[in-house]
User: Which sequence fits this backbone?
């Protein structure tokens, strides 16, 4: 079976400062991996590189067998990255964000299930409100709803359990499990055990410089 | 999924943004498009639009008659020369847009775009193409409007041909600058190869722009022929841009977009810092309004050069006031824990964090120059000197943050300012504002080089 994500020999440096180097990791369909590491160890930067928000100084990223180091070709987008504080258009309401994203990806039929997800996250009363007035937790929930509606092959989440309340965190764990069972790969950075998520691989981006994977496939050095 | 669907969605999104923008503008008139749902509101909206239209027509007419009066003394030959020089506007636009394309992406994604279309080439390409089309449209409309304004103010000028020619030339310039930017995006920031590839079409457009000026005697017969050449060139350039848009390195575009977001954050921080340190504003006013203008007569040779030494000494004593211009930058330098993670070099941090204070200084300088004009005769060179001294004060902040190239010396802010003002004063013995301005410009250039290539230190 082909890996969903395969990063080979990634390294990132700012000027002369090397943040991490020779990071390789592989995520198979249905795999959920947690990225652990101290503050400032470069977890967010690694996620940004994998999400193609930033160029790694070296290395390559292969998504579903295609080299996407310079960008993913197709739509619907095979990957979705929920950053720590998601930003939204200030002239579109939450409902319009959902409608727009689904239409842009030719997935109109998923609108109903997306609205149900909004309801489960307790946002149904805020559907016609501009997300610019949302709290950080509400923004994160909306971004998660958008991500789950697309059902991307690869979902990257930056510290999802920071802004969410315990109930929403539990719900998110269950939903991520469902997405993984459909064959998507999930990578999330965290500082605490994810609630409601089972059988996840733990990767560490730490001072020792090692990014350890359960199967020994993932490695790296700071 | 068909390729046109993302493009259509992106177009709808951009139309929605345009509507929101229009709504923001209409807010000043008490209108809201989202709430204009009854007849009275719609009538009021029509009334406002009609009023704006009449105002625009009157302004246009006034501008035209003013220009016609200005051009009248030039005679037929002079007016023809003005008409032939019109493409220089397009040349200036091409130069500016090309330099900009070499420094930053011609268009960047906002944070919401990044979230929604993370790494999706089709969506990003759709957005790029829409922005490209908008950019070309804006450029051609600006060209046509300028040509209409000038040619309709000159008797017997070929108005339609002039408008068409400049609109086409501006479109070609816009497409060329975009092609340069897109090639840079393709190469992940590399500049040399794009410059090599764009050289031939760039030279062609330059030649076309200069032709009317070189052969202005035959202007009326020349313009239609060159317009035809441009008409043939435009689809080629457009196709080139469309092809290039599919080869964009998305992570590089995302990076450039995030840098733009960071720059805006720096600007906002600079403005906020200036407002919150309001206690230092009187000092800045005193520096720009009194200290700097006081040196002008000596620098321009209108007063004895022996007074320069006391002026420099006074400036040195009041250097804390000049420090306000780069205060936000110096604060960031002192807080090393905050400085390290900022993804900016010394010059970029200096410029973007100090831009609000620098803009305020420039505005105050212009005001003080205008006030000086009420009591004495002052020229434009005096204004240029005022602005140069503001800039040198800011660059002194930059110099204080680095070890100088080659020598490794580190000058403090006060010493840097003293040194720069001293060097600026040297040509005062020659008694010419123009020479002082030239020396000032050379000092700005040298200081920028030092700040760029010096090693930043904590």
Assistant:
């Amino acid at each position: 079976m082909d890996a969903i994500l395969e990063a080979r020999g990634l390294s990132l440096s700012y000027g002369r400062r090397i943040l991490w180097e020779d990071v390789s990791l592989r995520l198979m369909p249905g795999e959920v991996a947690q990225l652990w590491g101290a503050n400032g160890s470069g977890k967010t930067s690694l996620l940004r590189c994998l999400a193609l928000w930033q160029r790694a100084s070296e290395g390559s990223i292969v998504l579903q067998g295609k080299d996407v180091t310079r960008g993913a070709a197709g739509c619907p987008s095979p990957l979705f990255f929920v950053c720590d504080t998601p930003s939204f258009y200030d002239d579109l309401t939450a409902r319009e964000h959902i409608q727009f994203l689904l239409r842009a990806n030719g997935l109109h039929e998923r609108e109903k299930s997306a609205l149900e997800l909004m309801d489960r996250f307790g946002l149904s009363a805020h559907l016609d409100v501009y997300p610019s007035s949302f709290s950080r937790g509400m923004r994160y929930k909306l971004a998660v709803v958008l991500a789950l509606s697309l059902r991307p092959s690869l979902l990257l989440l930056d510290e999802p359990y920071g802004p969410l309340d315990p109930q929403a965190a539990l719900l998110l764990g269950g939903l991520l499990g469902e997405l993984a069972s459909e064959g998507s790969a999930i990578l999330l950075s965290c500082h605490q055990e994810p609630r409601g998520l089972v059988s996840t691989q733990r990767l560490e981006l730490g001072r020792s410089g090692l990014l350890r994977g359960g199967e020994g496939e993932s490695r790296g050095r700071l | 999924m068909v390729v046109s669907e993302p493009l259509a969605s992106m177009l709808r999104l951009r139309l929605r943004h345009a509507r929101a923008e229009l709504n923001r503008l209409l807010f000043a008139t008490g209108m809201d498009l989202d709430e204009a749902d009854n007849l009275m509101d719609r009538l009021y909206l029509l009334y406002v639009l009609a009023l704006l239209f009449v105002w625009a027509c009157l302004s246009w007419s006034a501008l035209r008659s003013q220009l016609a009066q200005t051009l009248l003394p030039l005679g037929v030959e002079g007016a023809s020369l003005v008409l032939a020089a019109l493409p220089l506007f397009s040349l200036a636009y091409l130069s500016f847009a090309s330099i900009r394309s070499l420094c930053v992406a011609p268009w960047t994604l906002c944070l919401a775009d990044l979230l929604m279309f993370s790494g999706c080439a089709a969506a990003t390409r759709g957005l790029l193409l829409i922005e490209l089309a908008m950019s070309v449209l804006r450029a051609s409309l600006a060209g046509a409007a300028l040509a209409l304004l000038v040619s309709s103010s000159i008797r017997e000028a070929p108005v339609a041909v002039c408008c068409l020619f400049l609109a086409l030339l501006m479109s070609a310039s816009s497409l060329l600058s975009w092609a340069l930017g897109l090639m840079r995006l393709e190469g992940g920031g590399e500049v040399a190869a794009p410059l090599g590839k764009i050289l031939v079409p760039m030279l062609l457009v330059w030649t076309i722009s200069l032709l009317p000026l070189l052969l202005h005697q035959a202007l009326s017969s020349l313009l239609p022929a060159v317009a035809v050449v441009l008409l043939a060139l435009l689809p080629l350039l457009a196709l080139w841009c469309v092809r290039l848009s599919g080869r964009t390195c998305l992570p590089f575009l995302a990076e450039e977009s995030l840098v733009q977001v960071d720059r805006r954050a720096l600007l906002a921080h600079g403005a906020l810092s200036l407002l919150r340190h309001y206690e230092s504003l009187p000092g800045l006013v005193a520096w720009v309004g009194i200290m700097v203008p006081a040196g002008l007569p000596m620098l321009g040779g209108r007063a004895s050069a022996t007074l320069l030494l006391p002026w420099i000494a006074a400036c040195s004593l009041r250097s804390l006031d000049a420090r306000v211009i780069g205060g936000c930058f110096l604060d960031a330098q002192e807080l090393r824990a905050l400085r390290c993670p900022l993804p900016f070099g010394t010059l970029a941090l200096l410029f973007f964090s100090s831009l609000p204070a620098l803009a305020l200084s420039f505005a105050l300088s212009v005001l003080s120059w205008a006030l000086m004009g009420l009591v004495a005769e002052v020229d434009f060179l005096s204004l240029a000197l005022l602005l140069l001294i503001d800039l040198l004060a800011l660059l002194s902040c930059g110099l204080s943050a680095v070890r100088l190239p080659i020598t490794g010396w580190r000058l403090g802010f006060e010493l840097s300012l003293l040194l720069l003002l001293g060097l600026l004063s040297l040509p005062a013995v020659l008694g010419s504002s123009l020479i002082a301005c030239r020396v000032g410009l050379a000092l700005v250039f040298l200081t920028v080089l030092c700040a760029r290539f010096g090693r930043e230190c904590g």
In short: Chain B touches chain A through 35 residues (CB under 8 Å).
